[in-house]
Amino acid sequence: MKTRSSGEDGYDDSKRFTRERSYDSLLPGLHVDIALTCLARVRRSDHASLACLNRKFNSLISSGDLFGLRKQLGIIEHQVYLVCDPRGWEAFDPVRKKWRRLPKIPCDECFNHADKESLAVGSDKNGTVLKSAELYDSKLGRWELLPNMNSPRKLCSGFFMDGKFYVIGGISSPNVSLTCGEEYNLQTRKWRKIEGMYPNVNNASQAPPLVAVVDNQLYAVEHSTNMVKKYDKEKNTWSVLGRLPLRADSSNGWGLAFKAYGEELLVVGGQRSREGEGIVLSSWCPRSGVKNGLLDWKMLDIKEHVGLFVYNCAVMGC
């Protein structure tokens, strides 16, 4: 039987004997490695139920061992995490159509309503527009100060594409909109300015650019027209693909989420109906193409009685 090497994906052979003794009766009759491989395929939305079975399962879920094993086995499961009411974060499993409320985060309440990226750029808490950028290492729990950008900006958006980090849009002052973008090379630690990368004019009342990267291709939502656009990296131009399944213009882009969801684009926003207010989740796969000028959006689910505003949203795959 093939064994995991020392230190690979969080596993340590020096602790193998201890782990086997801890988990040896998870699934009676099966070797611990086989039992763990089976349990690694349990969907994350069922982990809370699994942890309630007994102390051993609770210990397994709490240890994080399953996440390391899932990564080693190449098991990727995308889930949507969002805040759309004061009660806090919720997780949605698109495959099972299952919602679950997450424990309250032990942090400042403003975290629920403020975007937190692995790479942060822009203004400080006083609103001063800065050139500074910082990179966060989630494994080490540490921030690293990066070289300054070429232009100070706030209300901008960032994303990774082709192994590099990009910042586009935003404003440098209440009356100055930035149409340029900047590319950061993590190897050379240098920024490169790209003129005209985001030609849409932003102002202080508009949301930061709604952008997402799927298959290393950049997509964006144009607030004023409710259209989805695609970026051509070679020509540094944008082309219109089709319309969103809901409106972004009525709120200047605020309260709407536009994210990469595996090989698809995900849009999350509010909708009013006879039954009341709710949050609608829809997805579209760029590989399916544009048909007669239309995007074939697929409704994933509707979360009712939670208001119309999405304060924060993230998609995680693990």
Automatic annotation (TrEMBL):
InterPro entries: F-box/Kelch-repeat, Kelch-typ_b-propeller, Kelch_1. Transmembrane segments: none annotated. One of its GO terms (cellular component) is nucleus. This is F-box/kelch-repeat protein At5g60570-like. It comes from Nelumbo nucifera. It holds the Pfam family Kelch_1. Keywords: Kelch repeat, Repeat. CDD domains: F-box_AtAFR-like.
